[in-house]
Amino acid sequence: MIGGILQPIDKSLVQKIHALVGEGVKTVEEMKRHLRHYVRNDLFAGQNPPPVTNRRYHPKDVDIRNHMYKETVKQMLSKADQESLEEKIKGWKQENPEDLFFFRPYSVSPMEAVPGNTSDTDSNVEAHVTQNLLFLYQTAWQRHLMSRYGNEIMLLDATYKTMRYELPFRLYSSYCVEHCVTEDSNMERVAFHYSTKNIPLASRREFTKQLIKNTEQFLRRMRWKAFHFLNPGQAGEKETFGFKTNNCPPVIEELHGYEDGMQRLIQSVQFKNTKCQFQKELNEDIKLIKNENRLFVKADKSTNFYKLEATKYNQLLNDNITKTYKKADSKQLRKIDVAAKAITKKLGINDRVEVTAQRKAFVTLKDHKDNFLNRPTFRLINPSKQEIGKISKKILENINQKLVNATGVNQWNNTSSVLQWFKNLPNKCESAFISFDVVEFYPSITEDLLGRALDSASNYMNISPDDHQIVLLKLAKESLLFSNETPWQKKNSNGLFDVTMGSYDGAETCQLVGCYLLSQLATIPEINIGLYRDDGLAVINQTPQKVARIKKQICMIFAQNNLRTTIEANKKIINFPDVTVDLITGRFGPYSKPATTPLYVHSKSNHPPCILRNIPEAVNKRPSEISSDEDMFNKAAPLHQDALHKSGYTYKLHFSELEPHRPQYQTKRRRNIIWFNPPFNRNVQTSIGRAFISLIDKCFPVTHKLRKFFNRNTIKLSYSCTPNMKQIIDGHNKATIRNAKMSEESRPQRLCNCKNENECPLGGEYLQSEVVYQATIATREETETYVGLTATDFKTRWRNHRMSFNHGRRRND
Question: What Pfam families does UniProt report for this protein, alphabetically (predicted)?
Fold first, then answer.
């Protein structure tokens, strides 16, 4: 052997090569690096390493490649690649049961094995291929990400014909493939693949806290019931408009035993561990939500959420408020509450009605609008509403019912009434639709328009202008918007009158004004017209030219009432509001907006079982009600069937003709029932319902004084729900805004924003609040000295003083 050139490779190196192949080393160059390190630091540690010409410890590339190949073949389950892959898949399925695998082996026809068929060209092989190789693999976390972020799927074909086997393809979200932006540096889109009405398992602390609260409310109602029975002379009948008393009930000795039993019931509740994959996903999402330092802002008409920094969100909120609102006097809220107190005092319920709660305004994102990514738009929501709106709601309900019966106008309250009107239309084939939508109907209702609607209603019933009800109806519309502890009022109005969406009497006010508008539209001849809130629909059997003239008349009537409309005419098929009606065929069926995917509560949600059992039947009932026949139902059913399947239900949707609604006449007196509403939680092992019923039988035997009012027939149980995902997200948003505000307040505040600090009246502390100051005011006749104290910053007070000097109407600022 000349200098070790012809020496065989050392056995220790062979073993090292085999071990490295098992660890995943694939290339010769990478193997040589590992071997050099092994020889230098392990075999000859502290010694002079052998020269590079020594093939025993520095083998040739071909030798290394041969040993790597032998070990690779040895580790293969089969010499055929696809057979080895098939065996590997079996092992992977056992290791990761939640992952998805699909394997289709490559196969050829028997013709390829016929003697004489020795051609090895691609064309010959392709001619006899009966099945190509296909292998798909998706991990559980990939499936989770795709269901959340991949609203649409695209296929990138990565195959080419120079290979015997087709290359695997990859699945992409369309947002990654197309040149479009779904988020920017300020917003990040998050789409939950389930309904945010799903309820996660409640913790012991949260469940116990809610159970105690609901038990206190239940025992409070029982005490009042017992008190009025034991003291009949002190009970008085009066209209409370649904307001509950805030007074504490007196202690009832006859209920001591039952109250002690309820306390022991709470203390004896036992818990268990419930394992569920869906609940596990909810808990993981809750952890992500709580660990996020940004807000989750809800989209307006989709299931998406957008992550926003608190400072950015506050900026957007302020921008949307200042578009249509201006700062209101801080005394306005006090004036509203004083006026409401006077009304409630006349009704005798001033001890039950709360003052106006300062609920903070918020915004939602209109991501369904065109060009949203480049120019996001928002919807401003004002959740603040007066409590006397509940009284106004009942008064308006009574007025509307009498008004519709007296005038006979088509004032629709639901889809069923629209369909009943459509069924009774004569000569449908010869008629055409006119549909219109009142633009921003709620905020466009002015005090003058409401007054004219009430005057029109007074022609059909006794409504006195001096009646306190009229004062109440208008007072209930006075509203303020609250943000950053500051009241705001509308810019385009001198007063506070505003019909807000979400107010207690907003829908009833809309119906009253709608009846007034329909009475004017009824003057148009040969037209059958109706109104559902802000959507109108009419049918007319005239020429297209005359229909166009009637269309102008409708627009003119709305314009006379300072209302804007969008209108379409000469339509045979129309969507109104969630049904598609066809005059040509006389059929109707469900309608859903494009790209709308229904989401239902999951079968594994932490809802009471009775609710989960009724969901599939309720889903089946709605399309059946608004479908004219089974064919129309079957066209809409797949969308809802797929949503039910994704929510864990096996229910099969089917068309069922519902019996016509018959009015139910009450033949028996309704029993006065007191309900106990404990929260439902799957982690609770104790049967609260069974223990509750047993306690009633034990504490109220037949001989008990209160047995008549407290027994199984008068006290019943119905489970309530713990917070759902939407409420958890809202709580996270409130905490994030609160923390951002606290951190902002902890920063050093700027005390002056003057352009020239040398000219600052307070020497660089112009924005200082709670300042006692003295001013000398000189006029031609005399000089006066004024001493004042400001609760706001001094700059605001100084500006108000200057305005009061120059404008007489601002003298009290």
Answer: ALS2CR8 (PF15299), HTH_animal (PF26215)
